[in-house]
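sorry for the late reply, my laptop died twice this morning and i had to redo everyting from scratch. anyway the thing you sent over, i finally got around to it. pasting the sequence first so we're on the same page, its 83 residues, then the predicted structure underneath. double check i copied it right bc i was rushing
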Amino acid sequence: MRLRVEFTTEPFDLDEAPAHAVVAREVVEAAELDAVDVGPFGNTAEGAADPVLTAVDALLRRTLEAGATRITLQVNVVGEGEA
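ok and here's the structure:
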């Protein structure tokens, strides 16, 4: 099974990336995922179920520890032909 996760962390700061946003980027970029897209208003990552779920666990724990006050998260099952 393949999963796509979309997430944001708050509070936002448009002048400088807050610590929790930097941590979120580090988590998804270090994970064994097939695709990662990090942006100022939303982030996506995609891969096999186990690595995605492991990354989500680390993402939640580490961004909260780094000061996130809200994490919005969506996980979708994606088919072979979807991108």
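The radius of gyration is 12 Å.
thats about all i looked at so far, will dig more tmrw
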